[in-house]
Amino acid sequence: MNTIAIIGAGPGGLLCARMLQQHGIGVTIYDADASAAARDAGGSLDLHADAAQIALADAGLLDACMAVARLEDQAKRAMDRHANVRGTFVPDDDDTAAPEIDRGQLRALIAAHVRPEAVRWGHKLTEATPVSGGRYRLDFANGVTTEADLVIGADGMWSRVRRLLTDALPQYSGVSFLDVRYDDADRRHAALAELVGRGHLFARGDDGSAIIAQRNSNGVIRGYVAMRADADWAAQAGVSVDDLPALHAYLLDRFAGWSPKLLAFLTDSDEYVERAIWFLPAPLTWEHNPGMTLLGDAAHGMGPFGGHGVNLALLDAVELAHAIASQPTLDAAVRRYEPTMWSRAAGLAQASNAATRAFFGIGVSDGPHEIPDHGTTHRRYEEDAVRYRTRV
């Protein structure tokens, strides 16, 4: 019997395991975390009708996800640094093109529908090595060693599995974020909550700086204090998230000239987490390697603009699982899956990376940022979903 190992229990890896189990195919998934809820999974993400929703419906999980997703949080508001509103998008009441869901909610929901004995928590991959017969030996930091006929790298931007397929490395975008968080926002951070409204707030300066905030569930607002900067900007400035007075002073100086209404986003956060923005070269392909493939950010990690990362990971997951179930061999399944995945991701990754750079004035002159037409984007998601279902 063939053995399949998935490295990484994020939404993509978990959904691939769920789909393989639905097909009656054995799989083991390995992740460094102690459990699906062991760490903060991050902020909110949108479930696109032409990607994540198709994948989740295929896995029988769309209704469960939509039950906790937030249609109203598809709204968008754009401001300049003086807190002047430059554009808004308010979704129709029945707009289901890209509802928001917390990343942690999505991960936990999918994990709950994977047979528990198939998941090996606390297993951090240290090395994957080819052995005889096209198999791979997997060594984990806890001393466990195993072998598999197919290794699926769902282990993110800094994938260890990817090293056996390509020399491509993540490239620093030129942009760094500070994750910020405001708990019980409507009561404890009422002025900021009013600025955010429903959904997302994008406030952009003219020097490669921005404040991005988004509604999450349970009264939480999360966001990013974003700067065009070197990857080691904090070390250069001699500040850290553990020294809040120094960090606040640095940020207030960096955002000098911004409206006092917006500056509270810099100083009132309940936590700060450094998060430099990296992405893989796009398009990215590799020579076919029997016994190994990638999905999600491990295959096509890209910038955050457009929200395509998790959406593509989920669609990758179900398509790979279906290929494994329908093809005569694992090798044939990988050969069927990879070209479609590469083709779909290439244009989206290039556009997302370009949009990220443009928003922060990297490679283009600074100036007014064009507000995307979110209504048109939502209609395209719906139309592309119809085309996808018709094609398959």
SSE topology:
Blueprint: E1 4-7, H1 11-22, E2 28-31, E3 44-46, H2 52-58, H3 62-68, E4 76-80, E5 85-89, E6 100-102, H4 103-111, E7 119-121, E8 125-130, E9 136-140, E10 145-148, E11 150-153, E12 171-182, H5 185-188, H6 190-196, E13 200-204, E14 209-215, E15 221-228, H7 233-237, H8 244-254, H9 260-267, E16 272-279, E17 292-294, H10 297-300, H11 308-326, H12 330-359, H13 374-391
Parallel strand pairs: 1-2, 1-11, 2-7, 4-13, 11-17
Antiparallel strand pairs: 3-6, 4-5, 8-9, 9-10, 12-15, 12-16, 13-14, 14-15
Helix pairs in contact: 1-4, 1-11, 2-11, 11-12
What do these coordinates show?
There is one protein chain. With 392 residues, the protein is an alpha/beta fold. The protein contains 13 helices and 17 strands. The protein has a seven-stranded mixed beta sheet. The longest helix has 30 residues, at 330-359. The model has no long low-confidence stretch (mean pLDDT 94).
Short description:
This protein has 13 helices and 17 strands.
Global morphology:
globular
Q: What integer value in Å does the Rg equal?
A: 21 Å
Judged by helices, strands and strand pairing, the structural class is alpha/beta
Gross CATH architecture of the largest domain: 3-Layer(bba) Sandwich
**How many β-strand stretches?**
17
Order of helices and strands: EHEEHHEEEHEEEEEEHHEEEHHHEEHHHH
Number of separate helices: 13
- CATH fold title of the largest domain: FAD/NAD(P)-binding domain
Give the low-confidence spans: none
Termini, distance in Å? 29 Å
Average pLDDT: 94
DSSP strand (E) fraction? 15-25%
Helix content: 25-40%
Name of the CATH homologous superfamily of the largest domain: FAD/NAD(P)-binding domain
For the largest sheet, list the strands in their spatial order: 5-4-13-14-15-12-16
Q: Which CATH first-tier class of the largest domain would you pick?
A: Alpha Beta
Question: What number of domains?
Answer: 2
The profile of the biggest β sheet is: 7 strands, mixed
